[in-house]
Structure formats: structure tokens, C-alpha cells
Specification:
The complex is a heterodimer.
Chain A lengths: L1 H22 L7 H24 L6 H19 L3 H21 L3 H25 L7 H4 L4 H19 L29 H12 L1 H23 L24
Chain B lengths: L4 H20 L3 H25 L4 H31 L13
Helix pairs in contact in B: 1-2, 2-3
The chains are: A mainly alpha, B mainly alpha.
């Protein structure tokens, strides 16, 4: 049974790769190519939905709504010719994934994802996009590099994952029984402590060394970023570097 | 009984999207945005399996993944700014002098 499911998943991912090949930016993209791309993307999503439903996996309907949102926004992240829009679509991906994390009873992780990704990392990206924006639409945003090789590589990877995971959920002895205990009760002594408390207990009792290493890693990254951005580099284009306050003045608004 | 399969499929799809974008795009900033999309897929996987096995450990790993993502974003964007100031372009092809 799971063999057939794996092949359906292969077909779904192949369709997705086919769709992506038509959707990546090209200099003179025709409407027909984009239509083919979006149609096969929808077809791939429908096939994946069929596989999930057909396997008797009872998921919340919200899951499929947010999954569709995440996938559509993810496609736009990597196909939109303007980096600012890519960043904004990435916010949609983050919010959709955070909603799915809520459905998976990972409340703390969902909030942390929104705060760290949509709050901190995305703002950093937007700063850099604004700083390094070039006037007009540069050619490197309108022409993809080796789109065929890229989608083939992505298909091989996702196909391998699908082949491995197609039999998930079929008599796994380690899986939880239907009347399973909530995730949040795992480490908090059986009391109905929250998900946050359970994660805190796990980090503080089992992974204190990893926690410290994570802190040191963040410090190293901060020092490295400061050192990198303060470094004076010669411009190779011969253009005089604009003085402070003049950077970005030549760029047209979006 | 819920199975992690739909979440795993979604995670794999997000990871594949990120990989395709990483390989296909030429804008350095979008390349690093694609790695963030890959991170989303992995975090989703970790949380799905945490729920499947009713264990909080997967969520703990996902939290450390967030740390790594923050570190990566900070360093990568510093590097991007350095490269941009040097060549005055965000094109990754501008740095292909080692191509044979």
C-alpha cells in the first residue's frame, strides 16, 4: 500500500518541479508559460492532498489551508523578480508555518518563530535589501541561473524524502496510542504544565551544554557581523562610494 | 489518529522549494531567503515528529534550529553587504571567477 503512495508522491513532486521550472523568472516570460506553471503547481498540491486524505490521515482542515498558503507563498518567494516582495512573501510562509505549529501543539515554538523570524530576521533582510537596492530591475533578478538543474536537484531530494516517509503512520510501535498524552505533559511530572514549561525543563535538564554553546554561537556571530560590516573594502567598479546619508537616494520607490 | 505524513510532505516541499531557489536565483539576498525557507521545512518536520511521538524533544531541537537560523542570517547578511560594497552588485555570477 505504501509503495503506491510513494509513487503518487513522486508524481506530485515531479509535477511541482515541472511547475517551478516554468515559474522561475526569465527575461521574456510569456503568459502561457506562467499559466502552465501555476496549473501544474495546483495539480501537484491537489495530488499531495489526495495522498494525505487517502491514507486515512485525519488532519484538521486548517492544516490544509495553512499548508496551501505556505506553499504558494514559498513559490512566490523564490520566483518573484523583486527581492522586497520575496521578503514579504517569506513573512507569509513564516506565519503559515507558525499556524501549523500551533496545530501541532507547539505553542511556544510558534510564538518564537513569529517573533524571531517575522520580527527580527526579516527586518534585517529588509534593511539589507534597502541598503543594496539598485535602480530599475537588474538583469540578475529577471533571469534564473540553471533552472533545470535546480528543479531536478530539488526533485531528487524531495523524492528521496517522500520515498522514505510514505510508510509513516502505518503500525509504528513507537507511535502514540489514540488517547495519547499531550506533548506538554512529557517532562513536567504529569501535571498539566504548559508547553513552554515542558520545553524549559527539557532544555535546562537535558541540554544545558547545547544552550550555552548556542549563546556563545550568537555572540560569535554578532562579533563577526560587526567586524565584517566595519571592514573597509576597495570598490572594484571605480565608482566613488556614496557618503553617509546619500546611500539609496538614486533608487526609485517601489 | 493523526500521522506526521502531511506535515512531512509539506516540510519536504518547503525544503525542496528552498533548494531550488538557492540554486536557481542569482540575487545574493534571495539566495539567503531561500535558505530560510529550507529552515521552515525542517522546523515543521521537527514539530510534527514531536507531536507524533508525544515528546517535547523535537520542539527543543527546533528551538536550537532557530538559534542557528539567527546566526546564519546575521553572518550571511554581513557578508552580502561586504560583497555588495566591493563589486557594486548583488549578482552571484559576479563572483564566478573560479569557474573553469
Amino acid at each position: 500500500m505504501s509503495g503506491g503512495r510513494a509513487y503518487l508522491l513522486y508524481v506530485a513532486f515531479a509535477l511541482g518541479a515541472f511547475a517551478l521550472y516554468f515559474l522561475v523568472p526569465r527575461p521574456n516570460a510569456r503568459l502561457a508559460a506562467r499559466t502552465i506553471g501555476w496549473l501544474s503547481a495546483v495539480l501537484a498540491g491537489g495530488l499531495a492532498l489526495y495522498v494525505s486524505r487517502n491514507a486515512g490521515l485525519d488532519q484538521n482542515a486548517f492544516f490544509y489551508v495553512f499548508a496551501a498558503a505556505a506553499l504558494l507563498a514559498g513559490v512566490r518567494v523564490i520566483t518573484h523578480p523583486k527581492p522586497v516582495y520575496s521578503a514579504v512573501y517569506f513573512v507569509v510562509v513564516v506565519l503559515a508555518v507558525a499556524a501549523i505549529l500551533l496545530l501541532h501543539e507547539a505553542e511556544f515554538l510558534a510564538v518564537a518563530l513569529v517573533v524571531i523570524y517575522a520580527g527580527a530576521i526579516l527586518v534585517t533582510y529588509l534593511f539589507v535589501i534597502m541598503l543594496a537596492q539598485q535602480p530599475g530591475a537588474p538583469v540578475y533578478d529577471r533571469r534564473a541561473r540553471e533552472p533545470f538543474g535546480a528543479v531536478v536537484a530539488a526533485f531528487l531530494l524531495t523524492g528521496a524524502i517522500a520515498g522514505q516517509s510514505a510508510s509513516l503512520g502505518e503500525d509504528d510501535p513507537r507511535a502514540t496510542p489514540p488517547a495519547r498524552t499531550a506533548v506538554s505533559r512529557d517532562h513536567a511530572g504529569g501535571a498539566s504544565a504548559g508547553n513552554t514549561a515542558a520545553i524549559g525543563v527539557a532544555i535546562m535538564t537535558r541540554y544545558p551544554v547545547a544552550l550555552e554553546i548556542g549563546g556563545v554561537l550568537l555572540l560569535i556571530s554578532m562579533v563577526g557581523a560587526v567586524a565584517l560590516s566595519r571592514k573597509r573594502v576597495p570598490t572594484e567598479s571605480g565608482r566613488q562610494a556614496p557618503s553617509l546619508g546619500q546611500i539609496g537616494k538614486e533608487v526609485e520607490p517601489f | 489518529m493523526s500521522s506526521p505524513l502531511p506535515s512531512v510532505i509539506l516540510g519536504a516541499a518547503l525544503f525542496g522549494l528552498g533548494l531550488a531557489g538557492f540554486l536557481a536565483r542569482r540575487n545574493l539576498i534571495v539566495i539567503f531567503l531561500s535558505t530560510e525557507v529550507m529552515f521552515q521545512g525542517v522546523i515543521l518536520n521537527a514539530a510534527a515528529f514531536a507531536r507524533y511521538y508525544a515528546h517535547v524533544e523535537g520542539q527543543t531541537y527546533a528551538l536550537f534550529l532557530l538559534v542557528i537560523a539567527a546566526v546564519e542570517a546575521g553572518l550571511a547578511l554581513g557578508l552580502v553587504m561586504l560583497l555588495y560594497r566591493r563589486r557594486d552588485t548583488l549578482d552571484a555570477e559576479a563572483w564566478s571567477t573560479m569557474r573553469g
